[in-house]
Amino acid sequence: MSNAPKHLKSGSECPPLKEGQLRLYGMRFCPYVHRAKLVLAAKNIPYEEIHINLTEKPEWYLKKNPPGQVPSLEWIDNQPKETRFIPESLIVSDYLDEAYPQTRLQPTDPYLRAQQRVLIERFSSVVGPFYKILRGDPKEGIESINKGLATYEEALQNTYFGGSKPAMVDYMLWPWFERFPLLKDAGFQFNADGNLPKLAEWVQNMENNESVQKVKVPFDILKKFIDGYIQGKPEYDIE
Amino acid sequence: MSNAPKHLKSGSECPPLKEGQLRLYGMRFCPYVHRAKLVLAAKNIPYEEIHINLTEKPEWYLKKNPPGQVPSLEWIDNQPKETRFIPESLIVSDYLDEAYPQTRLQPTDPYLRAQQRVLIERFSSVVGPFYKILRGDPKEGIESINKGLATYEEALQNTYFGGSKPAMVDYMLWPWFERFPLLKDAGFQFNADGNLPKLAEWVQNMENNESVQKVKVPFDILKKFIDGYIQGKPEYDIE
Q1: Cα separation of A198 and A187, whole Å?
Q2: Tell me, what's the pLDDT at A3?
Q3: N or C: chain B end with fewer CB closer than 10 Å?
Q4: Beta carbons of A105 and A97 less than 8 angstroms apart
Q5: Which ranges of chain A does DSSP label H, i.e. alpha helix?
Q6: Residues B110, A95: C-beta atoms closer than 8 Å
Q7: What are A140-190's pLDDT values in tens digits?
Q8: Which residues of B touch A99 (CB under 8 A)?
Q9: Distances in Å between the alpha carbon of B84 and those of A98, A114, A203, B76, B122?
């Protein structure tokens, strides 16, 4: 019997919110949801997770969040007593960091904060080609992803992008690094020519990080999902 | 003789930075630069502006900022003494708000902050169609822009998006509202069917705002630039 949570889809009903419990709407294999889960783990924030089938989205979810994306947060607030909702991975992550100030993941210095935010925003130079390669356009994609990664090798001036320990920026970039082995069949291997020594060490350190370990999806299950996703038949509830 | 600042281009040299002076790299007609200038005006921050020709970008600017976009900020910091640089309109604007804490434009409450950030991020539902219409695809564009604007009519629950006075979110959205008259020839008129009464009142209030007035580019000059831009021949130094 599987312990994997079922992904709710069209025709389902929204499970009732419990007072005092933070809810994360997610999808088990989504890198953007992965970001929020890393922040929740790093800050030790308790939450329940509701999985959304992104191919046949529940009507009730589209009502809460018309673009239908995950992750999002929902909870019942006390002052005033009302339901609150926040979408978008970066906004969710920054909200969690501000609303739960233990173990701050963002620097308080405005310049450092801005610099790290630039690294997060410009990571599209890696994420864009990642999906190109995944969807079967490896030729242009591999050149672009290596170019994008080279700028991160240059930007890494410390053990972590955030300094001597992982910070928000590290967690926001990590989900795609964990997924690089998915691109192996398409011919991409991270640091294939050894030009990314600092990044390679960072990957090693991140892999050993407690929060990273805690929310990791076993690679063979992720691979099974992605194989279906590429063929246009994503299977959400797999073990 | 013109008072309009010249836009520096390929082959130019970077004017030396002065200690103690904040520099904004901009382009006179760019809505993203407009965002930063609204924040600088609202917070009464002194700065010098260096204009960049975006068609023939100076080599020295591409070195500072490889994507070559404006706005960006630069200044000499004291501790330690080094040159600092921040790109990207939203990151520049948030940095200014945090580094110059007088007249805070962002709410301190994490939930309000997140909500207003969602409004800023999702404004692509208006900005995307704006450029579609401008570039001569009014049919699909007009339907999309009206759909996008309807969600902002619904979101506007107070005089301003930020509450009883203009906040970061208001300034981040404003530049495109000021540019709507540019779409007149393409058949788009803001609030043509009267379905956006709250937004229309917000536009009125924003037009009377001191910071908005201060950084406004006269419409006929903006129009002249845009006419050239649409034809692929933007003329930066016009009066």
Answers
A1: 22
A2: 54
A3: N
A4: yes
A5: 31-42, 59-64, 89-99, 110-121, 124-134, 138-155, 168-179, 197-207, 210-215, 219-230
A6: yes
A7: 899 999 999 999 999 999 999 999 999 999 999 999 999 999 999 999 999
A8: 110-111
A9: 26, 11, 28, 6, 30
Q: What angle do CA B177, B179, B185 make, to 5 degrees?
A: 120
Distance from the first to the final alpha carbon of chain A? 9
For A166, the enclosing helix (H) or strand (E) is none
User: Are B84 and B74 contacting, i.e. CB atoms less than 8 angstroms apart?
Assistant: yes
Identify the residue with better confidence: A79 or A195.
A195
Q: Which residues of B touch A117 (CB under 8 A)?
A: 88, 91, 94
CB B4 within 8 A of CB B238: yes
Q: For chain A, which domains are there?
A: 19-105 (3.40.30.10), 110-208 (1.20.1050.10)
Please tell me the predicted confidence (pLDDT) of residue A1.
Answer: 39
Q: Is the ipTM of this complex over 0.85?
A: yes
Largest CA distance in chain B: 57
Taken as a whole, chain B contains a residue count of: 239
In this prediction, residue B3 carries a pLDDT of 54
Q: Hey, are the CB atoms on B99 and A91 less than 8 Å from each other? A: no
Chain A touched by B62 (CB under 8 Å): no
What parts of chain B have a pLDDT lower than 70?
1-5
Q: Which of B30, B196, B206, B212 is catalytic?
A: B30
| Nearest residue of A to residue B113, measured between CA atoms | A95
Report d(CA A33, CA A72) in Å as an integer. 8
